[in-house]
Design a protein that fits this description.
Helix content is 46%, strand content 22%. The protein is α+β, with helices and mostly antiparallel strands. It folds into 2 domains: 4-118, Nonspecific Lipid-transfer Protein, Chain A; 124-251, 2-Layer Sandwich (Nonspecific Lipid-transfer Protein, Chain A), CATH 3.30.1050.10. The protein has a 5-stranded mixed sheet with strand order 7-6-5-8-9. Strands 3-2-1-4 form a 4-stranded mixed sheet.
Length: 252
């Protein structure tokens, strides 16, 4: 079972939050939002998450909460916001009608490009550059979704309640890293390598990571054969992995 509120937090911070990384990794995405002046879009969900995405010089940055914005997109419920992500709801701006062109001609194509990377065809993944970008973006989505589930999903919060305070590093060797910071059983994902950690889980290479993300190989078997390395406080990793099982359900 999944719930709409947790999914809304995942859609906001894990899915739309990965637009930051898309603009860093894909030159076409960066060019798409290369604007003369910064443009900010705020998304406000009643009884759910809120965030402001600012586009500047071909890059974008998401901040939690509603900041000064050029466009405000309100959603009356988590279900309505989730509809934006799955393409069944078209939002009506409460502010920023003059920026409709940016929404239609830049923001929407950018989110379409992100969707293409996150839900690629087998043919798409034959291209090495596409494969690398797609896998990195999926890594960021999964690691951020992990914290959102740990903080909001009923089963996820139980697992989070068993995690000691500290930092868990999750990484693909020689490729990309993120840190899960746990304090008082609240989880925050920071998309950068930590200076130190209490526990670490590392995938041996990007191909293995992709196969794990796609469910083509068994995680337990990979730990057994050493292609997934675990060091530090093992109980932290055990509970992180329980939450990861929930990630697959929400992202399916």
């Amino acid at each position: 079972m999944t719930d709409a509120k947790t999914l809304a937090y995942i859609n906001m911070y894990a899915i739309l939050g990965t637009l930051e990384n898309l603009c860093e990794l894909d030159s076409e995405a960066s060019a798409l939002v290369m604007t003369k002046k910064p443009v900010s879009i705020a998304l406000a969900v009643t009884d759910g998450p809120s965030a402001t995405i600012t586009f500047k010089n071909g890059r974008c940055r998401m901040e939690q909460g509603i900041k000064d914005c050029d466009v405000l997109l309100p959603f009356s419920s988590c279900e309505k916001f989730n509809g934006l992500i799955d393409g069944t709801v078209t939002p009506i701006p409460a502010k920023g009608f003059s920026k409709i062109g940016f929404l239609l001609n830049k923001f929407t194509p950018l989110t379409d490009k992100l969707s293409a990377y996150l839900r690629p065809s087998e043919e798409d993944l034959k291209d090495d550059k596409f494969f690398e970008i797609s896998t990195k973006l999926m890594f960021y989505v999964i690691t951020v979704a992990l914290s959102q589930i740990g903080n909001n999903d009923a089963i996820g919060t139980f697992s989070a309640s068993l995690i000691d305070d500290g930092v868990v590093e999750v990484s693909i060797k020689d490729c990309v890293s993120a840190q899960i910071v746990v304090k008082n059983h609240h989880m925050v994902t920071i998309k950068e390598k930590p200076a130190k950690f209490r526990a670490k889980m590392e995938f041996d290479n990007i191909r293995l990571a992709r196969d794990l993300f796609d469910g083509k190989v068994n995680a337990v078997a990979s730990i057994g054969d050493g292609s997934v390395t675990i060091v530090g406080l093992v109980s932290m990793i055990d509970n992180i992995n329980r939450i990861l099982d929930r990630v697959a359900l929400y992202l399916a």
